Amino acid sequence: MPSQPVVVVLHDGRLPPGAGLAPLRGRAEIRYADETELARALRDADVLFAYHFLSGAVPGAWHAAGSVRWLHVAAAGVDPFLTPAVRDSDVTVTNSRGVFEEPIAEYVLGQVLALAKDLPRSVRLQQEHRWEHRESERIAGSSALVVGTGPIGRAIARLLRAGGIRVRGAGRRARTDDPDFGTVCAPTDLPAELARADWVVAAAPLTDTTRGMFDADAFAAMRPGARFVNVGRGELVRTDHLVEALRRGSLAGAALDVVDPEPLPAGHPLWDLPGVLITPHHSGDVVGWREELVRLFAENFDLWRQGLPLRNVVDKSLGYVPGS
Questions:
Q1: How far is CA 323 from CA 48, 62, 149, 186, 286, in A?
Q2: Active site residue 262
Q3: Is residue 19 predicted with pLDDT exceeding 90?
């Protein structure tokens, strides 16, 4: 390894040169590159810091990454970067686990409360200067199924439990002694678990197994009046099937921070369906989150330079950090 390793920072135009990477100054050559500059910047580079975590530029530029040994993604989900070439390479992939868990859990609790208390309608009535009394729901005593038992799913479970909601999980293997979920069901038992829940929260990573898992059958399995919250990936859901379930009324509502396609086109039916709350993929983006992402990378860089085990190493065959 050269005395000054080359670190390429793939940015989205919102990371000023030098911002947050002061700890690396003098210890690495830092190259800032947008998507059009990535291939050129990757030549003879040692590290790629994918600060632009939604970028689709890596497949087209990876041919120039022959010397890259470590790819760090500034997100929990790494699916846009796990191309066949990256999977088959010796490159170590790490993610940003530890930054987004609590903010996303707060978002889910906030959306559950917004739907239960009918806050969107209250806002509309206020804008119309209308005083219209109505009843709302209590969340205490209701039930939730969190699909995805990694760190984000666990943070969601803990916060929903604090609100008095009975929480179960759905993961890769069944168990009854989980510290955060109590009971976790296996994939084969998912339809029965969906039928038990008032709130279904999608927080699973996007893999070949989970892509499109929320389809017509899954929505049909949910109990009448259930609500669906997606903070995982839009591609977990068959969007046309979700639209149909909402139109039929088999789902009472949905809160969607991620959608497919993304961004959602202006004329898409999801915008106007009753009981649907849409946010622009920002559930984890709290004040200071960008600085936290850079700080996490800088800490991992110190470990990498010392030859020590890196934090948050992704199993490229699974698509996420094992044990999460």
A1: 25, 28, 9, 15, 26
A2: yes
A3: no
